[in-house]
Design goal:
alpha/beta; eight-stranded mixed beta sheet; binds nicotinamide-adenine-dinucleotide
Length: 670
C-alpha cells in the first residue's frame, strides 16, 4: 500500500485504485487532507493499469466536514486559507471516473468533496448534508452550485438553507447518490467502479439539465418566494404580482399552455364518434426483440399487459431479454421503483421462438427489420394465426402501411403504431388510423397522435427536410459545430447532425437506398452523409460521423468533415446563426403546412405535440406550428420566398396554406 501522505493511502484492487482518507476521528478536512486526496487521485489516474478510482473514509465515516477549529485560524491568518473549491475542481477533472464511497456522515465540505466525484455510492445507514447554516456559514466550496445540479434547485435550497441531513434512500431518490450498497461498502464500491469503468461519465459541474428544468417561470416562483425574506407581507405580494404579470405575458407561458391543452386535443378524433366500440386490450404480442421490439414489450408490461415476444433465434431472444432486464435493473438501482415491480413486469414478458398463444392476443406489434418483403411475409403469417378482432400493427418508420396490409385478408385491422426509441421511455406514439389504438396509447401512458399513411407519417416526413437543410448548410460553408450549436441554443434537445450520428449514418443510408427511386432527377440532394457512409463513418457507433467521439461519447469537431463538405463543390460562404435556425425550422413549418393541407395531421396542434414529445422541440416555443404563429406567418412566408429565390422552387416552394394564412392574416392555431 502506497502512502501519499500520513493522512491518505492509495491501494489497488485489480484495475481499481482505492484512495483511503485516514484522519481520525471523523476524517475532517484538516490542512493537508484535501491536497493529499487530490495528489492520490492524480497519481492513480496517471497509472495506466487503473481504470477507475474509489475514494472512501477509514473508520466510522467518510469526510464528516471541514476542520471547524481551523476556520478561526484561517480568519486570523494563522493558517493559510486553502482553496478547497480548486482542489475539488482538480478531482472532478480526473480523466478516469472517480467513485465516492460514502458511509457515516458526509457533511459540509465532505459532501462538497463527494460531489466532485463522478459517482457516489452510499451505505444504507449513511447520511449526507450541508449543515453549514447551523454555525452561521454557507457551503464555501461550490456546494451551493453542485448540489442543485445533482438534486435539483428546490431540494438543494432546502438542504443548504435548513442544514438538515438526508438519509441514503432520500439521497438516492434525489440523484445525490447513484446506488445504495448493502453489505461491504468497499467491495460494493469497487464492483460498482468496475461496472462503470468503461462507460461515459460526466463532471457534476457540467450536469445542467436539472437547472434548466426549472425554466423562467420556476425562477420567477423562487424569486417570489425569496421576496418573503426580510420584507413585509405587502412588499412580497407586490413583487409576486409583478412577476406573475411578467409570466402571464410571456410567450413561454402561452406555449406551455398550448402544449398542456394540446395533449388533450390530440385524443379527440372528429370522425370517430364518442360511442365507437373499441376493444379492450388484455393480451399483447410483439414480433422482434431488437431495439424497438424490446422497448415496446416493456411499454406493455409497464402498463400491466401480458406480452409475448417472438424472435427468430434463441441468441437474438436472449440478447433482447438481457437488454430488458438491464434496463429494469438500472431503474431499480436509481430508486425509480422497487425490485418487486421489476419482477412483476418481467414476469409479464414471455420470450419465445414460435407463435404459441398469438391466437389470444388482442394486439400484435411487428418490429422486425425495416424491409418490405420481410414485413409482408410476417403479416401473411399473422393473418393465419391472429383472431379476427386482433389489431395487427407495424412499427415501420417509412414503409407504406397499405402495402403491408395488402397481404392480409383484413387490411382494415392493420395499422401503424409508430413508437419512438427508446420505446419504453419516449412519450410519443404516432397512430396511423384506428380508435382502439388511440385508446391503447392512453393505456400505455403515451401521447397518441393520429397520422395519415404517407412516407414518414407526420414526424419523420418533416424531420427529413429539417435534416436535409442542416446538411445543405454544411455544404454551403457552416461548420458542424455552428449548425448544431445554433439549434441547441434555439432549444432543441440535440443538434440535427448529432441526431444523425446517434441514429446511425448507416441506418439513414439504408433508408435512402429504399427511397432512391422516388428522387426527382436534377434536384439537389445532400451528399455529405453518403460520403461519410462510404468512409465507414457511421456516427457514434464507430466514434466518427459528423462529429468525432471519444471513449465517453463526448463529441468534438473534425476538420476532415469540413473538407468533405467542401469537396461537394457548392459555393461556400459565411452563414449566420439566424439563417441556420430559419432554414431548418422553417423547413419543418412549411412541410407541416402541407401535412395539414393533405389531412395527414388533423390539426396544427397534433403536429406540435408530435414535435414536443418525439423530437425534442423546446416546450417553451410550443411546437413548430405554434412557433410560426408567434413569429408571424407573413414573416415566415417572406423568408421562405427568399429561400425559394436562392435555392429554387424544387426545394423551397411555399405551402399553399402558408400563403393563404399570410394573406388573410390568419394563424395555424386560430
Ligand atoms: N430504431 C429506431 O429508432 C426506430 C424507431 C421507430 C421505428 N423503428 C422501426 O422499428 C422496426 C424495428 O427496428 P429496430 O431498430 O428494433 O431493429 P433491430 O434490428 O434492433 O431489431 C429487429 C429484430 O427483429 C428480429 N426479426 C427479424 N425477422 C424476424 C421474424 N420474422 N420474426 C421475429 N423476429 C424477427 C431480428 O432478429 C432483430 O432482433 C423497423 O421497422 C424500424 O424502422 C425503429
Amino acid at each position: 500500500m502506497a502512502l501519499v501522505s500520513e493522512l491518505v493511502r492509495l491501494s489497488h484492487h485489480g484495475g481499481i485504485a482505492v484512495v483511503t482518507i485516514d484522519n481520525p476521528p471523523v476524517n475532517a478536512l484538516s490542512s493537508g487532507v484535501p491536497e493529499a486526496i487530490l495528489a492520490a487521485v492524480r497519481e492513480a489516474a496517471a497509472d495506466a493499469s487503473v481504470q477507475a478510482i474509489v475514494v472512501r473514509g477509514a473508520g466510522t465515516t467518510f469526510i464528516a466536514g471541514a476542520d471547524i477549529r481551523e476556520f478561526g485560524k484561517m480568519a486570523s491568518g494563522e493558517l493559510p486559507s486553502i482553496n478547497l473549491a480548486d482542489i475539488i475542481l482538480g478531482i472532478e477533472d480526473s480523466p478516469k471516473p472517480v467513485v465516492m464511497a460514502l458511509h457515516g456522515t458526509t457533511f459540509g465540505g465532505g459532501l462538497e468533496v463527494a460531489m466532485g466525484g463522478h459517482y457516489r455510492v452510499i451505505a444504507p445507514s449513511g447520511q449526507v448534508g450541508q449543515p453549514e447554516v447551523k454555525i452561521g456559514l454557507i457551503p464555501g466550496a461550490a456546494g451551493t452550485q453542485r448540489l442543485p445540479r445533482l438534486a435539483g434547485i428546490p431540494k438543494a435550497l432546502e438542504m443548504c438553507a435548513l442544514g438538515e441531513p438526508v438519509g441514503a434512500s432520500e439521497a438516492l431518490q434525489h440523484g445525490i447518490t447513484d446506488r445504495i450498497i448493502e453489505g461491504d461498502l468497499l467491495e460494493g464500491a469497487v464492483a460498482f467502479a468496475r461496472e462503470i469503468a468503461s462507460k461515459p461519465f460526466r463532471k457534476t459541474r457540467e450536469r445542467n439539465e436539472k437547472l434548466w428544468k426549472v425554466g423562467a417561470a420556476g425562477n420567477a416562483a423562487m424569486t417570489a418566494v425569496l421576496a418573503s425574506v426580510g420584507a413585509t407581507f405587502e412588499a412580497g405580494v407586490a413583487q409576486e404580482r409583478e412577476l406573475f404579470d411578467q409570466c402571464l405575458r410571456s410567450t413561454e407561458s402561452k406555449a406551455l399552455i398550448h402544449a398542456f391543452f394540446g395533449e388533450r386535443t390530440v385524443a379527440k378524433i372528429p370522425d370517430i364518434p364518442k360511442d365507437t366500440r373499441t376493444f379492450t386490450i388484455q393480451r399483447a404480442a410483439v414480433i422482434g426483440a431488437g431495439t424497438m421490439g424490446g422497448g415496446i414489450a416493456m411499454a406493455f408490461a409497464n402498463a400491466g399487459i401480458p406480452v409475448l415476444m417472438k424472435e427468430t433465434s434463441q441468441e437474438a431472444l436472449d440478447r433482447g431479454m438481457a437488454t430488458i432486464r438491464g434496463n429494469y435493473a438500472a431503474s431499480v438501482m436509481k430508486g425509480r421503483f422497487p425490485q418487486e415491480t421489476m419482477d412483476r413486469r418481467l414476469a409479464l414478458i414471455t420470450p419465445q421462438l414460435g407463435y404459441n398463444g398469438f391466437e389470444e392476443a388482442d394486439v400484435i406489434v411487428e418490429a422486425v427489420f425495416e424491409n418490405m418483403a420481410l414485413k409482408k411475409s410476417v403479416f401473411a403469417e399473422l393473418d393465419g394465426i391472429a383472431k379476427p378482432s386482433c389489431i395487427l400493427a407495424t412499427n415501420t418508420s417509412t414503409l407504406d402501411i397499405d402495402e403491408i396490409a395488402s397481404v392480409t385478408k383484413r387490411p382494415e385491422m392493420v395499422l401503424g403504431l409508430h413508437f419512438f426509441s427508446p420505446a419504453n421511455v419516449m412519450r410519443l406514439l404516432e397512430v396511423v388510423r384506428g380508435a382502439t389504438a388511440i385508446g391503447l396509447g392512453k393505456r400505455l401512458k403515451k401521447v397518441a397522435v393520429l397520422a395519415g399513411n404517407c412516407e414518414g407519417f407526420i414526424g419523420n416526413r418533416m424531420v427529413h427536410l429539417y435534416l436535409r437543410e442542416a446538411q445543405f448548410l454544411l455544404e454551403e460553408g457552416a461548420s458542424v459545430a455552428e449548425i448544431d450549436g445554433a439549434l441547441v441554443d434555439f432549444g432543441m434537445a440535440m443538434g440535427p447532425l448529432a441526431v444523425c450520428d446517434l441514429a446511425g449514418i448507416d441506418v439513414g443510408w439504408r433508408i435512402r437506398q429504399e427511397a432512391r427511386h422516388r428522387e426527382k432527377p436534377g434536384v439537389r440532394q445532400p451528399l455529405v452523409a453518403d460520403r461519410l457512409y462510404e468512409l465507414g463513418r457511421y456516427g457514434q457507433k464507430t466514434r466518427r460521423g459528423f462529429w468525432l467521439y471519444d471513449a465517453n461519447r463526448r463529441p468534438s469537431p473534425d476538420p476532415e468533415v469540413a473538407e468533405i463538405a467542401r469537396q461537394v463543390g457548392v459555393e461556400q460562404r459565411p452563414i449566420g446563426r439566424d439563417e441556420i435556425v430559419e432554414r431548418c425550422v422553417y423547413a419543418l413549418i412549411n412541410e407541416g403546412a402541407r401535412i395539414l393541407e393533405e389531412g395527414i395531421a388533423l390539426r396544427a396542434v397534433d403536429i406540435d405535440i408530435v414535435y414536443l414529445n418525439g423530437y425534442g422541440f423546446p416546450a417553451r416555443r410550443g411546437g413548430p406550428m405554434f412557433y410560426a404563429d408567434t413569429i408571424g406567418i407573413d414573416r415566415v412566408l417572406a423568408r421562405i420566398e427568399e429561400f425559394n429565390r436562392q435555392h429554387g422552387p424544387e426545394l423551397w416552394s411555399p405551402a399553399p396554406m402558408l400563403r393563404r394564412l399570410a394573406e388573410s392574416g390568419g394563424k395555424f392555431h386560430a
